Amino acid sequence: xxxxxxxxxxxxxxxxxxxxxxxxxxxxxxxxxxxxxxxxxxxxxxxxxxxxxxxxxxxxxxxxxxxxxxxxxxxxxxxxxxxxxxxxxxxxxxxxxxxxxxxxxxxxxxxxxxxxxxxxxxxxxxxxxxxxxxxxxxxxxxxxxxxxxxxxxxxxxxxxxxxxxxxxxxxxxxxxxxxxxxxxxxxxxxxxxxxxxxxxxxxxxxxxxxxxxxxxxxxxxxxxxxxxxxxxxxxxxxxxxxxxxxxxxxxxxxxxxxxxxxxxxxxxxxxxxxxxxxxxxxxxxx
Length: 286
Known about the structure:
By secondary structure, the chain is mostly beta strands. Helix content is 0%, strand content 57%.
């Protein structure tokens, strides 16, 4: 009987941990209710560094020499096109490089990761008092692997299966430009990982001319799975996390802008204690 690839990690368990497979870390705080408008397009090119040297085995946070520090560099192309005033079509893709410097000598991994195809459809909008507006948008999507990348390794760059997402975004947009957006829903994961329930809460306000700051909180709960040590491998682990962060957008002109973000992990299960930093360029085609 062939020996599973995961079996070669057993002598140093529980020093192994799978990297989070969240797509598009530059916008990991979730979508808002804003739309581009018919015929308008936003294109974002971003790079993100995620790093950790501690991780959770089940709910116990540990650091092990066999893993050391794990770094992942992600290059993301994201675009959103206004098909109508109420519908955006979203397309994105990522390339990921991952490495670990621990004594376990885990191989570096680099490959195309996943693509995301989604739509954001505003189905309800209502004017409240003093110019405040409340809206709800449906956000269906599908995540597809772009290559046959490694998914069962400390340096895995993703989970390697198709996700079908049924999400929505509700938003309150105040007259002064500030907003509160909540993205949530249900992700059907067609493979080893169990389905997920995501929650992304974003607050935003323009604090200086052209500069918008958006603190955010993200929580993802897997609806089942095992802890690290399951001989079936990392894709079967239950991976939960809570992260907080801050993103910024600075508009240089009507067509160009700069974006950046920072986030840190405050709680997790079978995931890395990740700190992440992102920088990107935004091109607005109007």
